[in-house]
Write a structure and sequence with these properties.
Rhodanese-like_dom; about 100 residues; alpha/beta; 5 strands; Oxidized Rhodanese, domain 1; Rhodanese-like domain-containing protein; GlpE_sulfurtransferase; five-stranded parallel sheet
Length: about 100
């Protein structure tokens, strides 16, 4: 079982906007329907209910959801799997940058 009390680093959506110019991996853990309604162009949809199956090759991951709750839970699961994970505080509710619809 993963440690619920481990500290997960987090950044604001404003800080995320600055990071998007770099080659980062951003996982959007909302369900596919929410993702299709509007997501950050660079985001990869990995629904929270399937996060334990994630097997990306990258070491560092940024995780976003609607409000920051599920992304924080997902970050803890991914950290247990050995990834360096950064949670995006406030999630898409706080995102003011451009969004893309569809897949």
């Amino acid at each position: 079982m993963f440690n619920l009390f481990q500290k997960i680093p987090s950044i604001s959506t404003k800080e995320l906007a600055e990071k998007l110019n770099d080659p980062i991996t951003l996982l959007d853990v909302r369900n596919p329907e929410e993702y299709r309604k509007g997501h950050i162009a660079k985001a990869i949809n990995r629904p929270f209910n399937k996060i334990t199956d994630y097997q990306g090759k990258e070491k560092e991951l940024y995780v976003i959801c609607t409000a920051g709750v599920n992304s924080k839970k997902a970050a803890k699961i991914l950290k247990e799997k050995g990834y360096d994970v950064i949670n995006v505080r406030g999630g898409m509710n706080q995102w003011h940058g451009p969004v893309k619809g569809g897949k």
